[in-house]
Amino acid sequence: MSELLDIRDEKGQLTGEAMVRPEVHRTERWHGIALVWVYNSQGQILLQRRAAHLNAFPDKWDVTVSGHLAAGETPTQAAMREVVEEIGLHVNAEELEEAGTIANEYPLVYGKQHREFDYMFTAQADVTIDSLRLQVAEVLEMHWISVDDFERDLADPVNGQHYSTRDPKIYRVIIDKIRQLKSAA
Questions:
Q1: Range of the domain at 59
Q2: b/e string for 144-171 if b means 16 or more Cβ within 10 A?
Q3: Which of 127, 122, 124 has its CA nearest to residue 175?
Q4: Inter-residue contact 123 to 95 (CB < 8 Å)
Q5: Contacts of 181 (CB under 8 A, 6+ apart)
Q6: How far apart are alpha carbons 162 and 159 in whole angstroms?
Q7: Each residue's pLDDT expressed in tens, for the chain with a length of 185 residues
Q8: Could you count the other beta carbons within 10 Å of the beta carbon of residue 109?
């Protein structure tokens, strides 16, 4: 059975409707996504390379963890659930730092427009790649990258092609947020 998602209007407000995930995508309805950017005490960001069969950003480097908000689920609940599901890391609500919400639209591989509200979080964790349990159906591999190298890659026309085509504002918010958190530490 497909997961049920809450439908949102173009301003991000819940409409009171819920639909199964494939129908949400087929009808190009707005819905919620939790994005969790894990960083370490050296200020490096943990990125995942998405599985090649996925409908959004296949075989691209992307946010540490992303996932749909299930019907009735808060962004924080979805963020904690997805971190465990995708990489086997446990974080609690107090470890998640809210980084903002951005409306984001992009084409899926089969041509439909994906319309999501990205609820962004950061979480600090000094973990090794080997200690993570990857959800092999969705995550090919993980790697740490410095904020400076990440920013440089995104700006480079060649290296930038290896990353998801999320709204550039998302990357700017996260890069600035992690720099701010690292300097405050």
A1: 4-184
A2: beebeebbebbeeeeeeeebbebeeebb
A3: 122
A4: yes
A5: 39, 97, 122, 124
A6: 6
A7: 579 999 999 999 999 999 999 999 999 999 999 999 999 999 899 999 999 999 999 999 999 999 999 999 999 999 999 999 999 999 999 999 999 999 999 988 888 899 999 999 999 999 999 999 999 999 999 999 999 999 999 999 999 999 999 999 999 999 999 999 888 77
A8: 11
Question: CA torsion 102→168→180→96, rounded to 10°?
Answer: 40
Nearest to 18, CA basis, from 28, 33, 3: 3
Interatomic CA distance for residues 144 and 161, integer angstroms: 18
CATH number of the domain that residue 57 is part of: 3.90.79.10
Q: Is the pTM of this model over 0.90?
A: yes
* Residues 6+ positions from 53 with CB-CB distance below 8 Å: none
* 25: nearest Cα among 107, 122, 99: 107
- Number of domains the chain is built from: 1
